[in-house]
Specification:
237 residues; single chain; Alpha/beta knot; two-stranded antiparallel sheet; alpha/beta; Trp Operon Repressor, Chain A; binds adenine; 5-stranded parallel beta sheet; elongated
Length: 237
């Protein structure tokens, strides 16, 4: 999996991706991260990338030219000189489809993904029409830029790429996979603050443990995410 992030703040991406599980996956050459500074592509002699909005209104807009030239350079580095194929290009924006586990699963099969991170009040619509394949939001709230959303998505997608987590199973059994939240879990000691680990987990009886965990998942999902619970019940009638 090769990520290419078009941004005005490449250091934000580089810093976050260099630690912990992402850092290890990069070291192992399972994923790669290339942060490209859009500003390097502006033809403006003062290195400006933004301008006023036609029609008025608050704030500045990222101009089409630097974004387009940056995208062409990144695409060319992936595909070579004369390919007509389009690389999956995600514009992270609150005006997109809301990111979820199913979308992460689908994207984890791509070889290359370009993330376009906006700043200011957005990007000139004409260049978006030319380069973007997917408009994706991470939720119904507004952030100051696209870098954090791109990092959230890369983190979520990467843990589904084979070899990124040491334990294949842990990517599979997490919350959301079967439409339910994960059951409660415990480690040593057996008693802590007068709270004892549930007996069934100490029993060694695998069928009973599975049953208990499924029941706990149902209880937890009903309590914390009634929307998910109702959908699960509908699907599993
Ligand atoms: N940019 C600003 N807010 C965002 C959001 N919620 N999701 C994706 N990109 C964004």
């Amino acid at each position: 999996m090769n990520y290419h992030i078009m941004t005005l703040f490449p250091e934000m991406i580089e810093q976050s991706m260099s630690t912990s599980i992402m850092g290890k996956a990069i070291e192992k050459n399972i994923i790669s991260v290339e942060a490209v500074n859009i500003r390097d592509y502006t033809l403006d002699k003062h290195k400006k990338v933004d301008d006023y909005t036609y029609g008025g209104g608050a704030g500045m807009l990222m101009a089409a030219q630097p974004v387009y030239d940056c995208h062409r350079a990144v695409s060319k580095s992936i595909l070579g000189e004369d390919s007509k194929r389009k690389v999956r290009t995600i514009y992270v924006t609150p005006q997109g489809q809301v990111f979820d586990q199913a979308m992460a699963q689908e994207l984890s099969a791509e070889e290359d993904i370009i993330f376009l991170c906006g700043h200011y009040e957005g990007i000139d619509e004409r260049v978006l029409e030319e380069v973007v394949t997917d408009y994706v939001s991470i939720g119904d709230y507004v952030l100051t830029g696209g870098e954090l959303p791109a990092l959230v998505m890369m983190d979520c997608i990467s843990r589904l790429v084979p070899g990124v987590l040491n334990n294949e199973e842990s990517a599979q059994t997490e919350s959301f996979d079967d439409g339910l939240l994960e059951y409660p879990q415990y480690t040593r000691p057996e008693v802590w603050m007068d709270k004892k680990v549930p007996d069934v987990l100490m029993s060694g009886h695998h069928a009973n443990i599975e049953k208990w965990r499924h029941e706990q998942s149902l209880i937890r999902t009903k309590e914390r995410r009634p929307d998910m619970y109702n959908e699960y019940i509908k699907q599993n009638k």
